[in-house]
Design goal:
Elements lengths: L9 H11 L3 E2 L2 E2 L12 E10 L3 E8 L1 E9 L13 E7 L3 E4 L2 E10 L6 E5 L10 E3 L6 E2 L19 E5 L3 E5 L2 E17 L7 E6 L2 H5 L7 E4 L12 H4 E5 L2 E15 L1 H4 L3 E8 L7 E4 L2 H16 L17 H12 L5 H12 L12 H18 L2 H19 L30 H20 L5 H18 E2 L4 E2 L12 H9 L5 H12 L10 H13 L3 H17 L38 H9 L3 E2 L7 E3 L8 E8 L2 E8 L2 E6 L4 E5 L2 E5 L5 E4 L8
Helix pairs in contact: 1-7, 5-15, 6-8, 7-8, 8-9, 8-10, 9-10, 10-11, 10-12, 12-13, 12-14, 14-15, 14-16
């Protein structure tokens, strides 16, 4: 089977740039504000074959170029006879080429100023695939990039192929002198507008919430269609915002919404609206239900949120940014393990975030996001065992590590350069001088980089030595004995304690038992320390509490925090939730009345918490060659679940004190109480025991 092939990583960089140019706000486009490295525009592809008989091939390409067919022959008399000699003939792209038997080589040279240079070669035995070599005329030849989505010459790798589902509104009602269309759920869709007779002036006001759609002045997404001029300016921008399919049917561009309000009774009369929902149909490899309907609803809404935010890449939110953010993606890698276990979206996102070398800026301009990217490489290998991907991306990891190590002070602490965003979270952090939480991430990056080197058979001692020195200095400068916790900054003198650095310290295993106990008492369970308000850092806070056995508290927080969003009417989970915020202000953020994303990937973390900690499913060795299942039976009256374990799955059911477990792959161990049981492939294990858990 033939594959479309390109320079490795460039498919992801090309589509990543398209994605990061996709944000729309109130009639204009908002390209991402960080540096985005370009893909390569000029390539040579080649492969060598030994044909036993004549064969006809055809080369499809995106770009301009030619095909060069070479045959190994005896050198002519004027050449040295021991030199390799190839005769050659050039052909146009897109034509049948007859190849003769013998040792031969097919080359294709393609340039593309505006898009992705790529080729698809079809023949009986001569086909393009990952064994081909590609050269950018500057660096060494490398194996071509490819994926399993583009396998036919008529496809276009510059267009991502979504699954489409046309949805009718669930409810249409007259409101405020217009029509409100409610599609019953949030979608990412083209709006299909059918006019009853002649095209008329129509305004479309979109909303993730009913309130937003009805706010014709401040709704985030709005389009005004003028009869004869379908587009915001009726000019060059027309095709970017939509197109006429037929004389009376108009397709808008892709937007995220649940509601559409069409103001004006006359304008809305007889108008038909449909949503052409575009999505990637990832497999459903997990399920979870239990005796607590609130937890069931939290799981359901988390999965809906996560699937909507998972497309070509892991996105942050589907309405507002629609950008690829490294911090958001890092959490999505973990959630993905307990939903679809899709490796390809992880690779696409990792490659798109990094771009090509050299590194000239932190990913998304954010210091911590570059370090999450490095750490994600080790985590990806733990999930997949894919050392071929590590080998391909390794040079980019080293360039990122070098960039990080160029901004260290005399203590080895990383600081922000001018233009760097030292983020960590939306929180009141003391950022004077170097920030403790950033040092924790740097230490973890050293460990991850050393591990990647070890996997690839490269000495990682340099990074381990840096890690040990940094860990010691973090304790020396940032640990406050009186407060019994890590402080944000030792420079300011304020000795300010927040949860973030302390969460990382325990989560990464940088504390001993006494320090852990002190942090739990003085920070994690201390209500006087500012609470975390974003689902983003709730992910880490609840993970560390679950890892320490505080399952009651984690369960209570999930019900209160995520359940609190449900009580406010959420059908997907939000970017931020402040329970004490008045309902009339609950959609505001960044100084914008509707600036808050109501479908945000980092809001889906209950999936990870339930799968990883409450059901206790985790890899012990890479790719789940060995894995552990350790359900917290004391938290549930009953449950039934299925989770991916690498290429296989594990199923569990618990009811009336009876636990049943079955895995369809080897390597599994069930831990129930103090006992361990080997999971035999495709054989149901039944355990009858008293309820209990390791909770605190």
């Amino acid at each position: 089977m033939a594959n479309w092939i390109w320079y490795p990583g460039d498919f992801e960089i090309y589509h990543g740039m398209k994605q990061n140019y996709d944000r729309e706000e109130r009639g204009f486009f908002w390209p991402a504000y960080w540096h985005m490295s370009d893909w390569r525009h000029h390539l040579r592809f080649r492969a060598v074959f030994c044909l036993e008989r004549q064969e006809v091939i055809r080369v499809a390409a995106k770009g301009r170029g030619y095909v060069n067919v070479k045959y190994r022959q005896t050198p002519p008399p004027w050449m040295k006879q021991d030199e390799e000699y190839w005769s050659e003939t050039k052909y146009p792209i897109g034509k049948d080429i007859v190849c003769q038997p013998g040792d031969m080589m097919v080359e294709a040279v393609v340039g593309n100023m505006e898009g992705l240079p790529c080729i698809c070669v079809t023949g009986d035995t001569i086909v393009s695939d990952g064994t081909w070599l590609v050269w950018d005329f500057a660096s060494e030849e490398v194996s071509a990039g490819w994926n399993g989505m583009y396998v036919r010459p008529e496809q276009n790798p510059m267009e991502f192929e979504y699954t489409s589902q046309v949805l009718q509104p669930k409810e249409v009602g007259e409101v405020n002198g217009g029509l409100l269309f409610d599609f019953g759920r949030e979608v990412t869709a083209e709006t299909v507008i059918t006019f009853p007779e002649d095209v008329r002036d129509v305004t479309l006001c979109y909303g993730e919430s009913r309130q937003e759609a009805l706010d014709t002045e401040f709704c985030y997404l709005k389009q005004e269609l003028k009869a004869g001029q379908p587009g915001p300016d009726g000019g060059e921008m027309e095709e970017l915002f939509g197109r006429f399919e037929t004389e009376g049917t108009y397709h808008t561009r892709l937007r995220a919404f649940r509601y559409i309000f069409v103001p004006g009774t006359e304008a809305a009369s007889g108008l038909q609206l449909r949503a052409d929902h575009k999505f990637v149909d990832f497999p459903r490899r997990s399920s979870f239900t239990c005796g607590d309907e609130r937890i069931n609803k939290i799981w359901e809404v988390s999965e809906e949120t996560f699937r909507l935010a998972s497309g070509i890449f892991f996105l942050d939110g589907i309405k507002r940014d629609r950008w690829i953010w490294s911090g958001d993606a890092y959490q999505s890698y973990f959630i993905n393990r307990y939903v679809s276990f899709d490796k390809e979206i992880c690779k696409r996102t990792i490659l798109a975030l990094k771009g090509n070398d050299p590194v000239v800026q932190h990913i998304n301009t954010i210091l911590d996001y570059s370090m999450y990217w490095v750490i994600s490489l080790e985590d990806y290998f733990e999930m997949t065992g894919d050392d071929a991907f590590l080998k391909m991306i390794y040079p980019k990891m080293e360039s990122m590590m070098n960039y990080l190590m160029e901004q260290l002070d005399e203590n080895g602490f990383i600081y922000g350069r001018p233009g760097d965003w030292v983020y960590i979270d939306w929180a009141d952090l003391d950022k004077e001088g170097t920030l403790c939480a950033e040092q924790m991430l740097l230490a973890r990056s050293y460990q991850a980089a050393a591990r990647v080197r070890e996997i690839l058979g490269i000495d990682g001692q340099e990074y381990l030595e840096r890690f040990q020195k940094l860990k010691k200095n973090i304790c020396t400068y940032f640990w406050d004995e009186e407060k019994g916790a890590y402080i944000d900054s030792y420079v300011s003198g304020r000795r300010h304690v927040t949860r973030h650095a302390n969460i990382f310290a325990v989560l990464f295993g940088y504390t001993d038992d006494d320090e852990t106990e002190s942090i739990v008492k003085n920070v994690l369970l201390n209500d006087e320390v500012d609470a975390i308000t974003t689902p983003y850092f709730k992910f880490y806070e609840l993970e560390v509490l679950a890892s320490l056995g505080y399952f009651d508290r984690v369960m209570e927080t999930m019900k209160d925090y995520w359940g609190g969003m449900l009580d406010r009417g959420a059908d997907t989970f939000w970017e931020e939730f402040k329970p004490d915020q008045p309902e009339e202000e609950q959609y505001s953020m960044y100084g914008d009345k509707y600036g808050k994303s109501l479908c945000h990937a980092w809001g889906a973390s209950p999936i990870y918490l339930i799968g990883r900690y409450f059901m206790g499913v985790r890899p012990v060795t890479p790719a789940y060659a060995s894995f552990e299942v350790k359900p917290q039976l004391g938290q549930f009256e009953r449950f039934e679940c299925t989770f991916p374990v690498g290429e296989g799955s594990v199923w569990m059911r618990y009811e009336n004190g009876i636990l049943k477990v079955k895995a369809d792959r080897p390597g599994g161990v069930l831990k129930a109480g103090q006992d361990s049981y080997e999971l035999e492939t495709d054989k149901e294990l039944v355990i009858v025991e008293e309820r209990g858990s390791d909770q605190r």
